[in-house]
């Protein structure tokens, strides 16, 4: 699953009102989903740490139905399922579906119990029981003693009078009905208007644990089976599922005209990858005779407007890229991609029928920005990567979700690069994934990538795994691994792993083993086994800061903690030390890679009076610090190097971004002085590249958050205005006075940075520009001439600078547009107003599903909280409505953690800390679901903020005044 992003374009524009917005939203945005397995050998490797303090497993009990994990006595072989969703309300005003299912399973251990997952389904009594048991050979099975639903653990329990016999197969038949609710989980409904006509779509989101809401099933990833699906649907609608349609038959029941579509049986697969959709969508497809049939499905008007064309253009080539990369043929005959108006995550890699948010699949050159386009290419790439890594070979249990998601996240950049080689997306992984996850992983309340299997049991614990660590740290450490093995070796290892485990399940050690095997034949030198090197990165939380002393040649490592006094929430068997690969350069010349294997070591070549730069291209998952003489050399290189235009050649652009990000964070951890960090921004008046600017803007976002309400604010604004002015003028120039759009993808991003920071700091001409464009649009609503790249920044500034009229116009446009990319931009911009009453009204709207789709509600609230005026309003709002939000928007979604993180971002006073702690106590009854960790992290971050402001306020004020 590719989760919680909203489009990156919006995120980029976020800097306007709250420069701060960007870092967090990108960090939070990165969530997808999938599985991958975990190492049974772990205990012998000394995994002795206790479970986290997060969601604790409720009431232990001895009965099998009180445990969340299935017993190992039965294995499913195949299912025969018929489902009939009703796309009209019934006499009780409810949307429902009915269905029946036969599951054939084999007994592998004697048992008198059938436990099968089932949630929120009502069963028809069959001979007095909720299910009927038979054998596959016609013999008689043991009689059913009793059946019941175990609600907490989500089982249908069938207790028998006798035992099932190992080696024999049985079948269990059930008939049931469920609600087709608008809860974005299981079999659910999505709604939209076509003209004035309300349309209903029946669709699914099974991952991680909601297949059991659609029909009774052994709902664990290792319980792979073959699925024979049949859908009954209204005449004239289209039914889709994982397998290709075989036939559609028309029939009539009680005067209702219906169709029945049957599908080819699936491959052997996990339940969480099932999907079925009934809609009246249109599609476009690859021509007859194409190797794989690719279809893009969406609302009729979106397809008619050509919004699916880009996805169709790119899906085939990306699929072929992965076939080459994995050296493995796509195993299915078709690949459907469907854009849904309501969807909780970003996209979901259901095998053969990938579901997307509209913004993740549809592209409209007039309404979509370059960021939206990049998002579409990356999400498609992410999901297609899962077709092998995740779908063909699947994690044994959710504790290894990181390998699945981290992997798909990493290779999505390779696939997107193949599709759009001009974009430089491979570099952008540092800004989009590595830097943001550093921010989370430097907290003592972070967690290791890999949990032990026993630690993850409940659906809430599973949902909580879909976080930034899983996606972005997973991607970062796999990228590091691929770099030090070299890409060809890494890819050969993958291919060998996929071949061995096709259609089955693995633990992460299986991948290490295959990489090791390939590495050995490639004759590559490593300081230790892949297993020894990598386990240090995945079994302990956090990452090191590597300190290089060029005076002595000493290099050392230390667990990097944002709060140096904090203590990691769990001990580590590796003592918080890592095997660190160091790619480095001296005086601009690349040196041999060096491995740091101990807490510190002398390495003569690093003793130098010339400048040393380590972690080239930030391929390593660590930060770097130097002695002050080397820092001074790097700083003067940035400034002088730029003057003679030299540093462009010798400090790679990614490392310019790194120097900024590292120093700011080292300063927050009190390892270097804050003024050193601020000094890295001095050369920016000469910088034109996107990555360093973006890095600076994100780090300064923290200064905005902390100081926007203080005396530091004024002098900081003056300084930044001075720094951004040349960039603003540069873009004014190369765009012929804002007439054109720059050619390069990253220049297009940086143009938005220039405008937003310029407007924010009051550069002359900026507000006039944005207000003028918006005014033109208000005067002529049918003809919006604002370029899609600039829409977010322009809308936001104009609404911030305007009043009710501007806001209401934006709201009208938001409510009327049928384009999801446009809607996202307006939804964000509406949060930019400075009027408290408008913000409060907008907060109320956010929880009205007729105004704001449920999938978007938490985004709207977090946007409002980013606004300095809106933040206290949003905080009051979610505190007052927590129970309601929790019940209405809870489900298995991770958006709660986004909500908590977003709303508390600015907290930096004792009073706010008390409020947060009080909030935690008051709602301990309702609980925080998937936001447990986020809440702990918010408390930790607030404490760190309080200390940081106390220590830095005067110093920072003085620096800005004199800069
Ligand atoms: C399951 O339901 C479908 C649709 O109502 C029906 O046609 C079919 O006969 C049912 N299957 C069984 C085994 O009862
Ligand atoms: C299932 O049964 C419960 C309890 O009777 C009822 O409230 C609910 O509406 C039923 N659901 C469906 C889809 O019929
Ligand atoms: C079933 O009905 C639909 C809609 O009335 C029609 O377009 C289709 O041709 C029919 N299919 C068959 C096999 O008769
Ligand atoms: C899709 O590809 C066609 C043919 O190469 C091209 O003409 C068209 O502009 C592309 N559409 C988009 C949206 O990229
Ligand atoms: Zn994913």
Automatic annotation (TrEMBL):
Uppermost EC category: hydrolase
UniProt feature, compositional bias: Low complexity: 43-60
Question: EC no.?
Answer: 3.4.11.-
Identify the residue position(s) of the site Transition state stabilizer: 471
One GO BP: proteolysis
Q: Name one Pfam family in it.
A: Peptidase_M1
Ranges for the ERAP1-like C-terminal domain? 611-943
The secretion signal range is none
Recite the UniProt cofactor note for this protein.
Binds 1 zinc ion per subunit.
Q: Per its record, what are the GO molecular function terms?
A: metalloaminopeptidase activity; peptide binding; zinc ion binding
Entry keyword Transmembrane: yes
Report keywords, A-Z. Answer: Aminopeptidase, Cell membrane, Disulfide bond, Glycoprotein, Hydrolase, Membrane, Metal-binding, Metalloprotease, Protease, Signal-anchor, Transmembrane, Transmembrane helix, Zinc
Q: What is its subcellular localisation?
A: Cell membrane
> How is the protein disposed in the membrane?
Single-pass type II membrane protein
Residues holding Zn(2+): 382, 386, 405
Q: Where are the transmembrane segments?
A: 12-32
Entry annotated with the keyword NADP: no
Where does the Aminopeptidase N-like N-terminal domain start and stop, copy by copy? Answer: 76-273
> Quick one: where's region Disordered?
40-65
Record protein name field: Aminopeptidase
Q: What is the scientific name of the source organism? A: Denticeps clupeoides
Q: Which gene encodes it?
A: ANPEP
């Amino acid at each position: 699953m590719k989760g919680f992003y909203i489009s990156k374009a919006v995120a980029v524009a976020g800097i306007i009102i709250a420069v701060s917005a960007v870092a967090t939203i990108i960090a939070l945005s990165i969530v997808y989903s999938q599985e991958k397995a975990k190492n049974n050998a772990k205990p012998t490797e000394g995994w002795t740490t206790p479970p986290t303090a997060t969601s604790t497993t409720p009431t232990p009990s001895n009965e099998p139905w009180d445990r969340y994990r299935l017993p190992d006595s039965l294995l499913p072989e195949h299912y025969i399922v018929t489902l009939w969703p009703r796309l009209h309300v019934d006499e009780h005003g409810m949307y429902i579906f009915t269905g029946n299912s036969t599951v054939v399973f084999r007994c592998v251990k004697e048992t008198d119990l059938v436990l099968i997952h089932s949630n929120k389904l009502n069963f028809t009594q069959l001979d007095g029981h909720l299910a009927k048991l038979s054998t596959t050979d016609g013999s008689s099975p043991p009689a059913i003693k009793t059946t019941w639903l175990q609600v907490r653990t989500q089982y249908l329990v069938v207790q028998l009078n006798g035992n099932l016999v190992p080696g024999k197969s049985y079948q269990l038949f059930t008939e049931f009905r469920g609600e087709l609710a608008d809860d974005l989980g299981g079999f659910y409904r999505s709604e939209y208007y076509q003209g004035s006509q309300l349309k209903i779509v029946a669709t699914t989101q099974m991952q991680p644990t909601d297949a059991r809401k659609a029909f009774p099933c052994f709902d664990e990833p290792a319980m792979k089976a073959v699925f024979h699906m049949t859908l009954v649907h209204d005449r004239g609608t289209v039914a889709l599922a994982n397998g290709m349609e075989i036939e559609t038959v028309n029939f009539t029941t009680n005067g209702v005209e219906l169709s029945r579509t049957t599908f080819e049986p699936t491959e052997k697969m996990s339940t969480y990858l099932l999907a079925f959709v009934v809609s009246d969508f249109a599609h476009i497809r690859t021509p007859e005779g194409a190797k794989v049939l690719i279809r893009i499905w969406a609302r009729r008007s979106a397809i008619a407007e050509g919004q699916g064309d880009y996805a169709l253009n790119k899906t085939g080539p990306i699929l072929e890229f992965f076939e080459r990369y994995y050296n493995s043929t796509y195993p299915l005959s078709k690949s459907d991609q469907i854009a849904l108006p309501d969807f909780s995550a970003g996209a979901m890699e259901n095998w053969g029928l990938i579901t997307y948010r509209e913004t993740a699949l549809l592209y409209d050159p007039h309404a979509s920005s370059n960021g939206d386009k990049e998002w579409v290419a990356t999400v498609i790439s992410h999901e297609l990567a899962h077709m092998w890594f995740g779908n063909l070979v699947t994690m044994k249990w959710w504790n290894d979700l990181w390998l699945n998601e981290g992997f798909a996240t990493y290779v999505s950049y390779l696939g997107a690069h193949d599709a759009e080689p001009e974009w430089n997306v491979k570099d952008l992984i540092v800004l989009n994934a590595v830097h943001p996850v550093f921010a989370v992983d430097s907290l003592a309340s972070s967690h290791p990538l890999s949990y032990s299997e026993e630690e993850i049991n409940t659906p809430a614990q599973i949902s909580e795994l879909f976080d930034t660590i899983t996606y972005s740290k997973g991607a970062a450490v796999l990228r590091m691994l691929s770099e030090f093995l070299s890409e060809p070796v890494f890819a050969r290892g993958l291919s060998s792993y996929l071949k061995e485990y096709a259609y089955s399940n693995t633990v992460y050690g299986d991948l290490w083993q295959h990489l090791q095997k390939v590495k050995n034949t490639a004759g590559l030198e490593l300081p230790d086994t892949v297993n020894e090197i990598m386990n240090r990165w995945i079994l302990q939380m956090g990452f090191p800061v590597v300190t290089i002393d060029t005076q002595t040649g000493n290099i050392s490592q230390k667990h990097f903690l944002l709060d140096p006094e904090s203590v990691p929430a769990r001990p580590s068997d590796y003592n918080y030390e890592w095997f660190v690969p160091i790619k480095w350069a001296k005086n601009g010349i690349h040196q041999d890679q060096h491995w740091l294997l101990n807490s510190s070591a002398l390495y003569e070549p690093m003793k130098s009076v010339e400048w040393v730069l380590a972690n080239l291209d930030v391929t390593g998952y660590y930060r770097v610090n130097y002695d002050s003489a080397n820092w001074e050399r790097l700083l003067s290189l940035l400034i002088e190097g730029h003057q003679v235009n030299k540093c462009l050649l010798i400090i790679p652009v990614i490392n310019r971004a790194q120097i900024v990000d590292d120093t700011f964070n080292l300063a927050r951890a009190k390892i270097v002085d804050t003024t050193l960090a601020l000094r890295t921004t001095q050369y920016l008046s000469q910088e034109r590249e996107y990555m360093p600017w973006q890095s600076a803007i994100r780090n300064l976002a923290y200064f905005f958050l902390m100081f926007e309400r203080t005396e530091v604010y004024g002098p900081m604004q003056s300084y930044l205005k001075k720094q951004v002015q040349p960039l603003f003028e540069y873009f004014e120039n190369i765009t012929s006075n804002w007439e054109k759009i720059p050619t390069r993808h990253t220049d297009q991003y940086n143009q938005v940075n220039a405008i937003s920071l310029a407007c924010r700091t009051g550069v002359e001409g900026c507000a006039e520009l944005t207000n003028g464009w918006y005014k033109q649009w208000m005067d002529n609503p049918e003809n919006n001439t604002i370029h899609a790249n600039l829409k977010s920044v322009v809308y936001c500034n104009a609404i911030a600078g305007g009043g009710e009229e501007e806001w209401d116009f934006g709201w009208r446009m938001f409510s009327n547009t049928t384009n999801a990319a446009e809607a996202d931009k307006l939804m964000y911009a509406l949060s930019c107003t400075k009027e408290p009453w408008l913000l409060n009204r907008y907060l109320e709207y956010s929880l009205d599903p007729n105004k704001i789709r449920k999938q978007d509600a938490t985004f709207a609230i977090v946007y409002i909280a980013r606004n300095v005026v809106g933040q206290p309003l949003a905080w009051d709002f979610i505190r007052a409505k927590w129970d309601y939000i929790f019940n209405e928007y809870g489900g298995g979604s991770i958006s709660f953690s986004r909500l908590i993180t977003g709303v508390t971002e600015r907290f930096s006073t004792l009073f706010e800390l008390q409020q947060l702690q009080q909030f935690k106590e008051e709602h301990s009854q309702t609980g925080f679901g998937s936001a447990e960790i986020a809440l702990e992290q918010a408390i930790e971050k607030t404490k760190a903020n309080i200390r940081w402001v106390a220590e830095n306020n005067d110093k920072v004020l003085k620096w800005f005044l004199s800069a």
